[in-house]
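Human: I would love a firmer grasp of how sequence relates to backbone shape in proteins. Could you go through the record with me and say what the backbone is doing? Here is the record:
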Amino acid sequence: MTFKMCKLIITLFFLTNGQNLYAQIKLHTEDLPRFYQAFDSVLTTNDSIKQIEFINKLYVDKASQGLKEFMVRRGGNSIEWRKLILTQKESLLEKRPWIMSVLDQQKTIEEKLKRYKELYPNFRDGDIYFCVGINNSGGTTFDKTVYIGTEVLASNKKNWAVSLVLHEFTHTQQWTQRNITKLINDEKFLKEYEKTHTQLLGKCIEEGMADFFSELVNGESLAKTNPKGQTAFGLKHESEIWELFKKEMSLTSNWSDVWLYSKGEFNGEKISDLGYFIGHQICKSYYRNSKNKKQALEEMLATNLTNDNAIKFLETSKYGQ
């Protein structure tokens, strides 16, 4: 596999309302074969110094700009990658074809991003970096860039990356990432943001909105895309989940483990991220109850999900009413 084959540049031209709208999305996969070159080399020796040298020379020193940024945001160095390779050898071998299958998903990702632009003309272009991290981060975003930790998210499901890319790109379109530069550089603005974005409800709507857009653009139910995920589980227990969520949605801390970024127990089953499901259902209801669907999508992504605005969003959605 050549370097040229591994760096795929997707240039999309969209035709909307009779106008040519140019959108350039760059899909970077060059770090993936580099990682596995380092992986193979590490396994040829038991000398820890040589193993670290291989990782530095073949992966870290050649890192794409995205991988460098990913390392800053989520961590990663030659010592940690050596540990990952040695302790997760079998898993990384199993996932190797799944991770490299990103190359075969180019056309589908291209088609879905074109569809996204048609639904939402205000779409912000950006870069997608597929990396191998240190097993601590799946998908993350900063401003207009999406980073995918493939060692966490890759699966044997066909086109596994598509819905994930759509989810993460939705975050780049939302109010927070559109204002991330000001949040970083304006201390007063940041303090106001931190003071008004504290409750569980807003956080769940933000994540659920990314799931909703991913499903809408992909044209496939998330319950089908991921039959073992929170949406499939949530649809089977929706009324009970909603009753618990109503009690906790205004909490600013100490909410149940089932909602966000951790695994808890619900109805005797281990499950995580049910807040994504509830947020998805709220957004779906908001969309269904809007007369102007395109305007509804614009409104959703433009909403600054403060505590007060999140409550208004829920009320407008008519979910649970």
